[in-house]
Amino acid sequence: MKKQVVTSAAPKAVGPYSQGVLAGDFLFASGQIPLDPETGELVKGSIEAQAQRIFLNLKAVLNEADLDFSHVVSATVYLTDISDFATVNEIYAHFFNGEVLPARCAVQVAALPKGARLEVSCVAYRGY
User: Fold this and answer.
1) Could you tell me where the DSSP H helices lie in the chain?
2) Which of 10, 17, 19, 40 could form a disulfide with 57 if both were Cys (CB 3.0 to 4.6 A apart)?
């Protein structure tokens, strides 16, 4: 059985997808780009500002499912410029700092929706 996760604390889906889906003990959080949930507009400025917004959006989706970053078992990071990886990694470490860190993949892509420089998705497990 699956259940849609929806929160006004994260941007509304901009297409035919859910912010997150609970399937058993797993939450599959859709990729977040740096959209301000209040305006629906892309956060302008530095990669730091965009990364912060993304992780706050993911936090909101996790929290709506009564989870937090310690429950995340896998994360995927998409960057339009892989040279931003070290900066994003520092911000990532502020949010993912538990005893068991998630498995992760980071890749450079040609482009992201709305001209974002970064997108992050994750899978969380609530069974422990």
Assistant:
1) 47-64, 85-95
2) 10
pLDDT recorded at residue 98: 86
72-79 vs 26-32, strand pairing mode? unpaired
Burial class (CB in 10 A: 0-12, 13-18, 19+), 36: middle
Which range marks the domain in which residue 41 is found? 2-125
pLDDT digits (tens, 9 = 90+) for 52-93: 999 999 999 999 999 999 999 999 999 999 999 999 999 999
Which CATH number belongs to the domain containing residue 22 in this structure? 3.30.1330.40
| Domains held by the chain: number | 1
Q: DSSP state, 6?
A: -
CA dist., res. 34 & res. 87, Å (int): 15
